[in-house]
Amino acid sequence: MPIEHNIDFSKASFKDFEVISNLNAFERAGVFRDFTDYMKEHGQMNYRFVTSGGCGPEIWVQSPFNEKPQRCVSLVSNDYDINGQIREIGDLGDNLLLLYKTI
């Protein structure tokens, strides 16, 4: 059964799905799924890129617009505390976790 909403998918962005009056989280997720289906059907699904090498200043990106991966500047990171890049920081973090675990 379709969920009632007043979002125009042709003009929507992620922000439009944060709060939809009178819908709970599961219903909002359903409307968002409908939106991503709409974007895919209209060749505009630019939110889902396949990436590799996410720790560092450059990543490889594959998207619906370029099937062959391209090297791009990375403005995001999934390694926020840099543990994967600087061994000493990772070791310090591990030691702190062990210290607080035993207290």
Short description, anyone?
Helices cover 32% and strands 17% of the residues. With 103 residues, the protein is α+β, with helices and mostly antiparallel strands.
Note down, in words, how this protein is organized.
By secondary structure, this protein is α+β, with helices and mostly antiparallel strands. The protein has two domains: 1-48, no CATH class; 50-102, no CATH class. Helices cover 32% and strands 17% of the residues. It has helices at 25-41, 87-102, and strands at residues 50-52, 58-63, 66-73. Strands 1-2-3 form a three-stranded antiparallel beta sheet, with no helix packed on it. Strand 2 (58-63) and strand 3 (66-73) form a beta hairpin. The model has no long low-confidence stretch (mean pLDDT 77).
